[in-house]
Amino acid sequence: MTTGTAVADADSLSVPTAVEARSTLVTGSVRRKLFVLAMPVLAEQLLNTAVGTFDIFLAGRLSAAATSAVGLAAYVAWLVSMLAAMIGIGTTALVSRHEGAGDRHEANHVANQSLTLAVALAVLIAALIYGIAPAIATYCRMTGESFTITVDYLRIGALGLACTTVTLVACAALRGIGNMRTPMFIFALINLLNMSVSWALVYGPGPIPSLGVRGIVTGTVVAHAVGLALTLVLLARGRVGLRLVPRETVPTWERTRRILHVGVPAGADGAIMWSGHFCYLAILSRLADPPLGTAYFAAHMIAVRTESLVYLPAVAWAAATATMIGQALGAGNPIRAKQVGHEGVRQCGILAVIVSAVLFIGANTVYAVMSSDPLVREAGTAPFRVLFVLTPALVVSIVYVGGLRGAGDTRTPMLITIVGITLRLAVGYLGGIVLQMGLLGAWMGMFTDMIWRAIASSVRYFRGKWLQTRV
Questions:
Q1: Burial of 417 by CB count in 10 Å (0-12 exposed, 13-18 middle, 19+ buried)?
Q2: Max CA distance (Å), the chain
Q3: Which regions of 332-392 does DSSP assign to beta strands (E)?
Q4: Which phi and psi angles does 204 have, rounded to 5°?
Q5: How far, in Å, CA of 30 to CA of 11, rounded?
Q6: Residues whose CB is less than 8 angstroms from the CB of residue 61 and which lie 6 or more positions away in sequence, other chains included
Q7: Closest by Cα among 306, 347, 264, 263 to 92
Q8: Which residues contact 140 (CB under 8 A, 6 or more apart)?
Q9: N- or C-end of the chain: fewer Cβ atoms within 10 A?
Q10: Long-range contacts (CB closer than 8 Å, 24 or more residues apart) made by 413-416
Q11: Is 373 in a helix, a strand, or coil?
Q12: How far is CA 423 from CA 315, 337, 383, 408, in A?
């Protein structure tokens, strides 16, 4: 395909020409452009944090069992996002390379192929979660009210997670061309609608029925269904940089192979990570008998949600880093590509240190707000402070791994994950179960994992072999 053809096809999509779109990210100040690119994703991630925290807050007003159910459902949602990454990361890497090379038409074709793969994955995910919901609750030693609430929550939420899968992949394609604002607006709408509908269905003001815990998950499903519908409408109109073209959604082996060649290791990485975390939940659920054991579990869920105030901004910079690295490599500028990751760590690292310091100081307040159970507050406060001494290390690993994935190097992060998860489980079991050190002992495994990832991802990035990755 000639450059002229690519530009003509781009014009037919009612979007800027490929050269115009490319020039905005592959030249000029790395610092300024990375910061500007990360801001919409950061706003999106902060809203994600707000809605997750709000769900835990609503559940905490109901019961410890509700808090555990909502927290466990968050782990399942995390698995879905990891599986969606099997397509989304491959999509971003390929779309950004084509965008950097000036070929918007091929970038659009890859995006359409990715949507087809996402729909197939979404159907599989919804069916699987619905079927294994009781097994998940049993595995985490849920009984009685906790079991019933958890199974119901997971099964209703399966539809929302299917919608999320397709939306995540579509937004990954948009980020590949450097469009961060549209995903931000889509997820802003989803999150604001989620909080509003969930609150209304939990408390039932006026004629609205009060559904309790079920109201939280119903609000989530409604919000994500609306978000998916909006995403498809925007793509169908072709005014967001890419266009939904039905004939291009028919799978072709070459494009599917390229997407999955990059994405499958990332998906395997996510599945391994999630499986390890799920096994880790089994350790946490066996630290003590109820009510102390239930308090440990609830305290962990609150900490995980709060940790997202550091984790999700790192995801924002990782997304921006991946886009800029992919486009820089597509434009044949490896020096600029390497500069991007270092700048991402610097920018997000400063934010992480500030947020971690605030949460370290405010540990008592966090648990007082998030739970009405004094046992939960007592179990979680001290370990929480140790966690936020180490969270800046988490930022380093997330941003550098995002850069590696943007270049198409998805196998190295997978190997780093295998070692990290092994350390998390072994050390966590030793501290929590064998030495009976409670939640802090179990979290020693998590701390070891975080430190390992920071060191390993930094070494890989600094060596620079990933710059020769072919996609």
A1: buried
A2: 69
A3: none
A4: 60, 55
A5: 28
A6: 372
A7: 263
A8: 68, 72, 150, 281, 282, 285, 297
A9: N
A10: 413/265, 413/266, 413/269, 413/457, 414/265, 414/266, 414/268, 414/269, 414/272, 416/452, 416/453, 416/456, 416/457, 416/460
A11: coil
A12: 23, 31, 19, 26
CA dist., res. 396 & res. 384, Å (int) = 20
248-290: pLDDT as tens digits: 888 888 888 888 888 888 888 888 888 888 788 888 888 887 7
CA distance 241 to 102: 13
Residue scoring higher pLDDT (142 or 299): 299
Q: What is the DSSP letter of 435?
A: S
- Among 99-108, 113-122, 401-410, 429-438, the range scoring the smallest mean pLDDT is 99-108
Residue 370 phi/psi, 5-degree rounding, is -85, -15
For residue 168, give the 3-state DSSP assignment. Answer: helix
Asked whether the beta carbons of 160 and 221 are under 8 A apart, the reply is: yes
Please name the residues in contact with 328: beta carbons below 8 A apart, sequence gap of 6 or more.
25, 26, 100, 334, 336, 337, 340
- Total residue length of the chain: 471
Give me 288's structure tokens: 């003590």
- Residues 371-395: b if buried by 16+ CB within 10 A, e if exposed: bebebbbebbbebbbebbebbbbbb
Q: Which helix (H) or strand (E) holds 437?
A: none
Say whether pTM exceeds 0.90: no
197 neighbors 209 (Cβ within 8 angstroms) = no
State the Cα–Cα distance between residues 153 and 215, nearest whole angstrom. 9
Is-contact 261 411, C-beta < 8 A? no
Q: Are 186 and 102 in contact (CB under 8 A)?
A: no
Tokens at 412, concatenated: 């190295």
CA dihedral over 364, 308, 445, 320, signed as positive or negative: negative
122 vs 335: CA distance, rounded Å: 38
Return the amino acid letter for 357: A
344-388 pLDDT, tens digit per residue, is: 999 999 999 999 999 999 888 888 887 777 888 888 888 889 899
Task: Take residue 127 and report the two structure tokens written for it.
Answer: 């069916």
Q: The tokens of 92 are what?
A: 């971003």
Identify the CA nearest to 278 among candidates 435, 440, 447, 138. 138
Q: In angstroms, how far is the first alpha carbon of the chain from the final one?
A: 18
Question: For residue 417, what are its two tokens?
Answer: 């994950």
Q: What is the token pair recorded at 256?
A: 């599917």
